[in-house]
Specification:
Pathway: Cofactor biosynthesis; (R)-pantothenate biosynthesis; (R)-pantoate from 3-methyl-2-oxobutanoate: step 1/2. Homodecamer; pentamer of dimers. GO terms for molecular function: 3-methyl-2-oxobutanoate hydroxymethyltransferase activity. By secondary structure, this protein is of the alpha/beta class. It has one domain: Phosphoenolpyruvate-binding domains (TIM Barrel), CATH 3.20.20.60. 42% of the residues lie in helices and 14% in strands. It has an eight-stranded parallel β-barrel, surrounded by seven helices. Strand 4, helix 6 and strand 5 form a beta-alpha-beta unit. The two termini are 36 Å apart. The protein binds 3-methyl-2-oxobutanoic acid and sodium ion. Sodium ion (NA) binds next to loops. 3-methyl-2-oxobutanoic acid binds next to strand 6.
Length: 274
């Protein structure tokens, strides 16, 4: 399994870092089998798995359940778990407790948190000093989309750009091992990756030290809105739809189950295993 130091080495060697989200054991296994460097149990699960409009409804219990499943499915891959909405804003003690739960009970190797307030910087320091690796997240931070005024490109213009660079430096100085930047201009991403020693992992941020995509967007399983920056590499939604439609037709036409899928009486058949 790759460790945080390996991601630093990869940046230094200009080897691209790959990260994909997963939310359950079978998808985690797929991501691991594809030799992706890190798995993110993202709170995007609120949208792509649970059908919410944003990530604000996601709770620590939700994250814990999904992180456990991912950890069972991918035992050889570095797993980052998102700290969900308002679980790292009350106090540092509270943040430490919640992060510890995701790591100790959930099986994550690191946690990710959004933004850069004073409390967050102190929390990054406390968590890393205690042994929990932390990934930062700047730019479009979906948990605060209401405050940001929706899902919009961030870091445009001199003022926002300077602020984001300062925040990124502070996150690095606090001990984070990597930084996700979401929906910012590529020129800003380039500047960030030159300034920071830690890897900058982009989503909707152009070329960076690595990239992250949401599993359901990547395989074409997302129903509804797919962001402009997400490249869809398959159409798994249609594959699943066709399978279920064929099953429906087979049952309606009494083609399923045929004898291959049917048990005979004990006298005629020796094996009773299913
Ligand atoms: O929750 C998530 O999937 C994320 C990525 C988009 C970075 O935070
Ligand atoms: Na997230």
């Amino acid at each position: 399994m790759k460790q945080t130091v390996d991601f630093l080495k990869m940046k230094r060697n200009q080897e691209m870092i790959t990260m994909v989200t997963a939310y359950d054991a079978p998808t985690a296994k797929i991501v691991e089998d594809a030799a992706i460097d890190l798995i993110l149990v993202g709170d995007s699960l609120g949208m792509v798995v649970h059908g919410h409009q944003g990530t604000q409804p996601v709770t620590l219990d939700d994250m814990l359940l999904h992180t456990k499943a991912v950890a069972r499915g991918a035992k050889q891959t570095f797993i980052v778990g998102d700290l969900p909405f308002m679980t790292y804003h009350r106090s540092i003690e509270d943040t430490v407790t919640n992060a510890t739960t995701l790591v100790q009970t959930g099986g994550a190797h690191a946690v990710k948190l959004e933004g850069c307030t004073g409390l967050i910087l102190d929390s990054i320091e406390r968590l890393t000093s205690g042994g929990i690796a932390v990934m930062g997240h700047l730019g479009l931070t979906p948990q605060s989309s209401t405050v940001l005024g929706g899902f919009k490109v961030q870091g445009r213009g001199e003022q926002e750009r300077t602020k984001l660079i300062e925040d990124a430096k502070r996150i690095e100085a606090s001990g984070a091992f990597a930084l996700v930047v979401e929906c910012i201009p590529e020129s800003l991403t380039k500047e960030l990756k030159d300034i920071l020693a830690i890897p900058v992992i982009g989503i909707g941020a152009g070329k960076a030290d690595g990239q992250v995509l949401v599993f359901h967007d990547l395989v074409g399983l997302t129903t509804g809105y797919i962001p402009k920056f997400a490249k869809t590499y398959a159409n798994v939604h249609d594959v699943m739809l066709q399978a279920v439609e064929q099953y429906r037709d087979d049952v309606k036409r009494e083609l399923f189950p045929d004898e291959r899928y049917t048990f005979k009486d004990v006298k005629k058949e020796r094996s009773t295993s299913v």
